[in-house]
Design goal:
This protein has two domains: 228 residues, Rossmann fold; 142 residues, Rossmann fold, CATH 3.40.50.460. It has 14 helices and 13 strands. A seven-stranded mixed beta sheet has the order 3-2-1-4-5-10-11, with helices on both faces. It has a four-stranded parallel beta sheet with strand order 7-8-6-9, with helices on both faces. Strands 12-13 form a two-stranded antiparallel sheet. β4, α6 and β5 form a beta-alpha-beta unit. α1 runs antiparallel to α4. The mean pLDDT is 94.
């Protein structure tokens, strides 16, 4: 018999709790697993020995169904960067103390690029110290920028939200007779997957978004203004999707960074709004979708949620088969009918790496997305869950704040 622990890290998504349910539900099936611990605030909980017994937290299938539809990270999150254990292993010793004290034989970390760095470092350290503790990474990120995997849990729901929201913005923008431009700022630090997914609307017969700008293409303000003027000759209301991570002049964004050295990005939409107002002089507004795009579970993708649970469960089976230092990934078998396999790869192939939009997904002008990309995006947004409602709004699974402290 052994115990296991699971933690969540990085930015929230609609699907990260579904992966937690996948780990929990699969672990309940295994007679070799006794206690299932949840680490509060990611790896910080392992360092501080701040764990909770998930069997007391989740007591029924109804609890699991409710947790699966709940956005964000129910166990709390963190952005904690582990030092290289060869230079400073103090924190690693604290983690080992927690694992040994709790008799934990496997640790599952649900997160993005930086979380997979933690998986890689921990598995290396345990191997060096000859500790038989399995470490498995379970992917998540709305940015969809993890290498090797076809896509990441959380992305499909976020893509569904931004596409639906852009369609609604399009309807709103076309009611007046005067020309207008609307700039919609969408998350995406270095990779433009989420911004590009707005082109899903083209498959539905919409002309919007009329312009799409992603970090993979060098941004030129002069060319941008020419693009806008050209679209204004064709459309009364021009809709522009722009990634928060496109290159902008110094001072537009705050310059503040997190523990991994990533800049906090915001402000490109407002900046472009002011430029358009100054240079073109038309009616213009900017909309920053902000955190709504990652936690809007009321319009999540059922494909995304079911895959997130499945990949969490697969992570448990992977550890029980004897694997460690692995990250679970999706391998797409077919677009139509949409089929994926769940496999695993060494964490070193994923950690600290980024996957960018293929060149074939970006048009030759660098200002929109090709129809070729739609076969990739469309399967990921399909289906809607039958949500449990409470007085007219989706019900959420929550923990008492005292537990999280």
């Amino acid at each position: 018999m052994m115990n296991i622990a699971v933690a969540q890290s990085g930015g929230p998504t609609c699907a990260i709790n579904a992966s937690l349910v996948g780990v929990f539900r699969e672990a309940l099936k295994e007679k070799s697993i006794d206690a299932i611990f949840g680490s509060i605030n990611g790896i910080e909980g392992m360092i501080e020995n701040h764990l909770i017994d998930m069997k007391t937290m989740i007591s029924s299938n109804g609890d699991m169904d409710l947790l699966r539809q709940t956005p964000s990270t129910v166990l709390g999150s963190c952005r904690y960067k582990l030092a290289d254990w060869r230079e400073d292993n103090k924190v690693y010793q604290q983690i080992v103390n927690t694992l040994v004290q709790r008799e934990i034989g496997a640790f599952f970390y649900i997160g993005g690029n930086d979380s997979m760095d933690t998986v890689n470092k921990l598995s290396e350290y345990f191997a060096e110290k000859k500790l038989d503790i399995k470490v498995i990474g379970i992917p998540k990120t709305i940015d969809n920028d993890l290498c090797v995997t076809d896509h990441t849990p959380g992305f499909g729901s976020a893509a569904k939200y931004v596409a639906a929201t852009l369609r609604e913005i399009t309807r709103d923008s076309t009611v007046y007779s005067i020309p207008s431009v609307t700039v919609v700022e969408i998350m995406g630090r270095h990779a433009g997957w989420l911004t590009a997914s707005t082109a899903i609307l083209h498959a539905l017969g919409e002309t919007a978004p009329h312009l799409v700008y992603v970090p993979e293409v060098k941004f030129s303000l002069e060319k941008f203004l020419k693009d806008v003027r050209r679209q204004m000759t064709k459309h009364k209301a021009v809709i522009i999707a722009v990634s928060e991570g496109i290159e902008v002049p110094e001072g537009v964004q705050s310059g503040v960074v997190d523990n991994f050295g990533h800049k906090y990005l915001s402000g490109i939409g407002k900046y472009l709004e002011n430029v358009i107002r100054s240079e073109i002089g038309c009616k213009v507004r900017s909309i920053e979708l902000n955190v709504m795009q990652r936690c809007s579970s009321h319009i999540c993708s059922w494909t995304d949620i079911t895959e997130a649970e499945a990949i969490g469960a697969a992570g448990v089976r992977c550890a029980l088969s004897g694997e460690t230092g692995m990250v679970m990934v999706f391998k797409r078998v077919c677009d139509m009918p949409y089929t994926v396999d769940i496999q695993h790869v060494d964490a070193s192939e994923v950690a600290n790496k980024e996957k960018f939009l293929p060149k074939g997904y970006i048009n030759s002008a660098g200002n929109n997305i090709t129809d070729h990309a739609l076969d990739y995006f469309l399967p990921l947004i399909q289906g809607e869950p039958n949500l449990i409602m409470e007085m007219g709004v989706p019900k959420h699974f929550t923990l008492q704040e005292s537990v999280l402290k």
